[in-house]
Amino acid sequence: MKNLSIKNHTISELIEILGDSDQGDGLHIHISHSRFEKIPITYPFRTDSFCLFLIVSGSLTLQLNLIKHTLVKNEAIIAKPQVVAHILEMNPKLSIISVSFTVDFILSNGFKKEDHDAFEFFTGNNIPKLKLSNEEMDSAVSLAKILGRNQRFSLEKLPFKQELVQSSFKLLLYHYASIYKREFPDLEASLSRQEDLMLRFLDLLNENLKNERTVKFYADVLCVTSGYLSKVLKEISGKTANQLINEAVILEAKILLNTPVLSISEIAEELQFSDQSFFGKFFKKHTGFSPTTFRKTH
């Protein structure tokens, strides 16, 4: 039987695919010194890390949860953990800097509340790309290179390495956050309890949507009642818990249907439906298309 799941790659696996050396500690800075001859990952995948992409030259087209983004010189975007990424096109002249880091890196490096508030853009569900001025891009590239240099050296060769990495990492992210705050001034500086509950619900949903589709499961894990959870989600997103669960399943189904090597029965099995017929009825109810029609037209 084929391996049906969308692949999950750790930050270490992505580093190996790119041909880089692992810099350790849940932080990696990739600087493309030469052009890519081909797309390094040709299939949709998830990763356990955040990633900031900076386009130095050329262009990159990628899909994040089925939303296509084309990035050109001086543009940047953040990809979050568990987002399904798919690299579609890479210009032969593409030169890119990427800064990848895990949640564990953030937690283990003494980030304060004000840091989390400034980096609030990481928690948004629809993060747009940013256009940087030439001066802003020059600064971002310089900061990324300094961070990369600090991260590569051993403690023996670079006394105060941890402090230097923390400081240069924060400086780069504050630089990005400043641009983001200027472009999106209405960004909230902190999360309410209800917003925090929604984010925790969405994280759980990403991890469990194939096996758990009842509101009660998520409410129990989050230590709230099903009614309260749905009420909070409705107030913030305009959708109930059931609607959000169904939307997550449909998104996963669409991504798998865009993978032509998988049969519809295999996709139904991967998504834990009892049979292909039940999957087909569920998909059509929520999209207006049968799985076969969606695959042909999309």
From TrEMBL:
It comes from the Bacteria. GO terms for molecular function: DNA-binding transcription factor activity; sequence-specific DNA binding. The keyword Transcription regulation applies. InterPro entries: Homeodomain-like_sf, HTH_AraC, Tscrpt_reg_AraC-type_HTH. Residues 199-297 form the HTH araC/xylS-type domain. SMART domains: HTH_ARAC (SM00342). Coiled coil: none annotated. Pfam families: HTH_18 (PF12833). Keywords: DNA-binding, Transcription, Transcription regulation. The keyword Transcription regulation applies. This is AraC family transcriptional regulator. The lineage of its organism: Bacteria, Pseudomonadati, Bacteroidota, Flavobacteriia, Flavobacteriales.
